[in-house]
Amino acid sequence: MRLQLAKKMKINEAKAYVAEKLGVSLEELCDVVTMSDKREELGLGLAHVEPCAEANAGMEAKFRIQEVLDIKINSVERFKERAGLK
User: Global pTM?
Assistant: First the structure.
């Protein structure tokens, strides 16, 4: 949805963009097991799993998502601004 709003993409374009950025096929993008592995591999946080010490969570995951998908996430930008990272 972020891509639909931020980059004015239609749903199929947004899915193709994310799949390309993550290095998966469109079918793999819809596969829960594949995407859980990919999210863990890329440090994008894990959905519906209890957090562990090695897993990225919260802001750290958002920073990685912004970086990997090359999109702007407002909460990350505000964090950077308030922390003096800009």
Answer: 0.78
Helix (H), strand (E) at residue 4: helix 2-6
Per-residue buried b or exposed e for 3-37, using 16+ beta carbons within 10 Å of the residue's own CB: beeeeebeeeebebbbbeebebeeeebeeeeebee
Q: Are 66 and 76 in contact (CB under 8 A)?
A: yes
Is the separation of the CB atoms in 20 and 70 below 8 Å?
A: no
Dist. CA 5–CA 28, nearest whole Å: 23
DSSP 8-state assignment for residue 7? S
pLDDT by 10s per residue, the chain, length 86: 888 888 889 999 999 999 999 999 999 999 999 999 999 899 888 765 555 555 556 888 899 999 999 999 999 999 999 999 87
Q: Which two tokens stand for residue 47?
A: 């959905």
